[in-house]
Design a protein that fits this description.
By secondary structure, the protein is of the alpha/beta class. The protein has one domain: Metallo-beta-lactamase, Chain A. Helix content is 25%, strand content 20%. The protein has a seven-stranded mixed β-sheet with strand order 8-7-6-5-4-3-16. Strands 9-10-11-12-13-14-15 form a seven-stranded mixed β-sheet, with helices on one face. Helix 5 links the parallel strand 7 and strand 8. Helix 6 packs parallel to helix 8 and helix 8 packs across helix 9. The longest helix has 14 residues. The protein starts with a helix and ends with a strand. The chain binds zinc ion (ZN) (2 copies). One zinc ion binds next to loops.
Length: 334
């Protein structure tokens, strides 16, 4: 009898899809993607990419996203979203105010004069923000987890919700962090904040910390609205799983840039067409594009992602009312 029960438990657990079980997969103290390890192109290709990007970082950039003066009233409407640049959105819904991946600095790098630089100023300066209840960080890369931005927000009383392991960066910057694994959630000021899977990687230094901090997306569920923050992610089956559990989502923020060359980027970043497919899988009513036009990270022209995104969105039935490429500083009700 006892043995039969054990067999039954094993059979049942094998029937649950892997991502629906406990948290993110891991190997020792390193987190892994559900799809397993990523394939790397040869060293010459990777080295060539980094050399070309280093050279380009000294040239004047072109194709930055357009920027408009922010409108304080529009920014404080409930519900609304304001694009501050890159993956930083100011969101108001169900009485809370939060930021996604707050990044207000000039360089996405630990070194002041090196690394991807900002090509257009933040749409709202840090000191002009309304009171921010919490910030969601998707992972530890410098264009998403920025120490000076965290320090400034923490001083103003903002709390941080982060994937497992990223709390050390927040605490080091003087903030408080709630750390969650995939499919765990917490509650702040009446909204539920769910940590959901993404397909990416982590590491802030060339040595040692690769994969030690988890990467994630976020779903915020309030009394009347559901918002999704995709963070940094490649295309994966997790979108359909998230859509099944939380859809329909009123607004999904999806990254559309940093896809070229695909041999290096495809596993970890969406291209614009994949972002639209992700919006479909997520069962998103509306989608707002991010992660483009602000930092020159990869080889596609800076203004190519929004053009391709618009075309792909239209082909898939997302008209201008449902698929947004905002100007930096622009607010939209939803
Ligand atoms: Zn990243
Ligand atoms: Zn990024």
């Amino acid at each position: 009898m006892h043995r039969k029960l054990i067999v039954l438990a094993l059979v049942l657990s094998a029937m649950v899809p892997p991502m629906a079980r406990a948290g993110a997969p891991r190997n020792g103290d390193r987190f892994l993607n559900s799809a397993g390890p990523r394939e790397w192109p040869g060293i010459p290709e990777v080295l060539g990419f980094f050399l070309r990007k280093t050279w380009q970082s000294f040239l004047p950039p072109s194709g930055a996203a357009r920027r408009v003066p922010f409108d304080r009233q529009a920014m404080e409407r409930n519900p609304s979203v304001t694009w501050i640049g890159h993956s930083t959105l100011l969101v108001r819904m169900d009485g809370v105010t939060f930021l996604t991946d707050p990044m207000f600095s000039d360089r996405a790098s630990p070194i002041a004069f090196f690394g991807p630089r900002r090509v257009v100023a933040p749409g709202v300066p840090l000191d002009q923000l309304p009171k921010v209840d919490f910030a969601l960080l998707s992972h530890d890369h410098y264009d998403h987890a920025d120490v000076p931005s965290i320090t400034a927000l923490a001083r103003g009383g903002t709390r941080f919700v982060v994937p497992l392991g990223l709390g050390d960066v927040v605490r080091g910057a003087g903030g408080d962090a709630i750390e969650l694994d995939w499919w765990q959630h917490t509650r702040i000021n009446g909204v539920d904040i769910h940590c959901v899977p993404a397909q990416h990687f982590s590491g802030r230094s060339a040595f040692g910390d690769h994969g030690r901090r988890l990467w994630a997306g976020w779903v915020v569920v309030g009394a009347t609205r559901r918002f999704y923050h995709g963070g940094d992610t490649g295309f994966f089956s997790g979108f359909a799983e998230i859509g099944k559990r939380f859809g329909p989502l009123d607004l999904a923020a999806l990254p559309i840039g940093a896809y070229d060359p695909p041999s290096i980027m495809r596993f970890v970043h969406l291209d614009p067409e994949e972002a639209v497919r992700a919006a479909v899988d997520l069962r998103a009513e509306r989608v707002v594009a991010m992660h483009f036009g602000t930092f020159d990270l990869t080889e596609e022209p800076l203004d190519e992602p929004p053009r391709r995104f618009r075309r792909a969105a239209t082909r898939n039935g997302f008209d201008r009312e449902r698929a947004w490429t905002l100007k930096i500083g622009e607010s939209r009700d939803w």
